[in-house]
Amino acid sequence: MPDRKRTARKRPTLVRATDVLVGYGSTVESAVCPPISVQVAPGQALAVVGANGTGKSTFLRAVAGLLEPLAGSIEVLGAPVDERARRFRAEVATVLDEDSYLPALTLREHLLLTARGHGATAVSDLVTEVVEEFGLAARQHALPTALSSGQRRRLLLASAFVRPRTLLVLDEPEQRLDAGMRDRLAQRLVAERAGGGGVALATHDPVLVRTVATSALVIAEDAVRVVGPEQAASAIEAL
């Protein structure tokens, strides 16, 4: 497994959202969903589920420090969200719903740079392991522009797993993955929890919720609920 930075002292709650309103306007009237209050502790995984347009991705962007909440507060690693902070950048890995890669570097070069830039150890072996795990070995010397959509998605996921991290924030990580790769991703996320890391993921995959999540945030236009994984998976299947 990739090396991760862990501390012997008791770590704070990884994510704590209190009465958070999110949206892309400037006033609370532009909020896309009701207030959200939820937390993620070390060793836990929060699934964020709901119909399209209910604010799942918007909430995760706020957790990742890419969007200022309209109201309420979000703490990550025990401090107010600040994606410019050194500790935040060192310990929070994100894969959001957008392609983000260095077009002049091959897939392998991209992962080597990411791993080294975040202080990973035994970098070459680590990248080889993750490349093989994500089914990218045959394409590791290709440029991102030469990859298929699914391969680019796996590159982005691999980028999160070659770096040290305490919290993973993933927006619909199952997108463009076949059934076998979804299973491997689920087991990787279960291992993440077992190692003391935290996961916050938006998903439409009930199997992923049942396998990975320890709790779930169900977002609807008129209500937000924190429920167990089985109830959340059933809510997805009912959409």
Structure description:
The N terminus is likely disordered. The chain has about 240 residues and is of the alpha/beta class. Strand 4 and strand 5 form a beta hairpin. The strands form two sheets. A six-stranded mixed sheet has the order 6-7-8-3-9-10, sandwiched between helices. It has a four-stranded antiparallel sheet with strand order 2-1-4-5, covered by helices on one side. It has a domain of about 160 residues: Rossmann fold, CATH 3.40.50. About 35% of the residues lie in helices and about 20% in strands.
Q: What is the CATH level 1 assignment of the domain at 15-99 and 164-238?
A: Alpha Beta
Shape: globular
- Radius of gyration from CA coordinates: 17 Å
CATH architecture descriptor of the domain at 15-99 and 164-238: 3-Layer(aba) Sandwich
Protein structure class: alpha/beta
The percent range for strand residues is 15-25%
Report the strand count.
Answer: 10
Low-confidence segments, given as residue ranges, are 1-9
Enumerate how many helices there are, as a single number. 8
CATH fold label of the domain at 15-99 and 164-238: Rossmann fold
Which descriptors would you attach to this protein?
239 residues, alpha/beta, Rossmann fold, six-stranded mixed sheet, 34% helix
SSE topology sketch:
Elements: E1 15-21, E2 36-40, E3 45-49, H1 56-63, E4 71-76, E5 79-80, H2 86-91, E6 92-95, H3 107-117, H4 123-133, H5 149-161, E7 167-171, H6 179-194, E8 198-202, H7 206-212, E9 215-219, E10 224-227, H8 229-238
Parallel strand pairs: 3-8, 3-9, 6-7, 7-8
Antiparallel strand pairs: 1-2, 1-4, 4-5, 9-10
